[in-house]
Design a protein that fits this description.
This protein has three helices and ten strands, in the order αβαβββββββββα. It starts with 10 loop residues before the first helix and ends with a helix. Strands 1-2-3-4-5-6-7-10 form an eight-stranded antiparallel beta barrel. It has one domain. By secondary structure, it is mainly β.
Length: about 180
């Protein structure tokens, strides 16, 4: 079940959700599904990588599981399967009661997208998380981030982060995929 941040908002979420109606968007925006499945060879060559599979569904139209995206806004549903490596396999926040051993877990977040200095930036409803579309040729997207929280239904993502090292940017190159790759994650 996806978070309902903008359907049952607290004050911070309400303020965030109110920001985007009518926001200017950068150039032609990607719509539809973009995904990538990293094979064992790729993951072995990048032992700090925490993502085994990723799918991002960009849309202007709200769906039942896109509760945060109001009509007329542009948003993205992010779904990931975490790899059995990197920081997601270690204890991340025992003092907060988070579970350990995230390897293989499926997590998600829903982001709202708008123009930020001529580039499309998709941000989480809370904190400073999100990604910038650094490259879009219609068939391939490169997403860049320095903080991208994901979770399993709690507000604002929150369980873990898709970056590999704190403060270090990470990129994900995705290709256009059939809608079923995002819908049946």
């Amino acid at each position: 079940m996806r978070s309902t941040t903008c359907t049952e908002p607290g004050l911070a979420a309400l303020a965030f959700c109110a920001l985007l109606p009518g926001a200017a968007l950068a150039g032609p925006l990607p719509t539809g599904c973009f995904a990538r499945h990293y094979d064992a060879a790729h993951l072995a060559a990048h032992p700090a990588q925490v993502v085994a599979r990723i799918a991002v569904d960009f849309t202007y139209d709200p769906r039942p599981d896109f509760a945060q995206i109001a009509p007329g806004n542009f948003g993205a549903a992010l779904d990931v399967e975490l790899a059995h490596q990197g920081h997601v396999t270690r204890e991340t926040a025992p003092d907060e009661g988070f579970a350990t051993g995230f390897g293989g877990a499926q997590m998600f977040n829903v982001l709202l997208c708008a123009d930020h200095g001529g580039k499309t930036r998709c941000t989480t409803p809370c904190a400073d998380g999100g990604f910038t579309i650094a490259r879009d040729d219609g068939a391939t997207l490169t997403l860049e981030t320095t903080a991208l929280p994901v979770g399993q239904g709690q507000d604002c993502g929150g369980f873990t982060d898709l970056i590999e090292q704190p403060g270090q940017p990470v990129s994900y190159r995705l290709t256009r995929a059939p809608a079923r790759d995002c819908e049946n994650f």
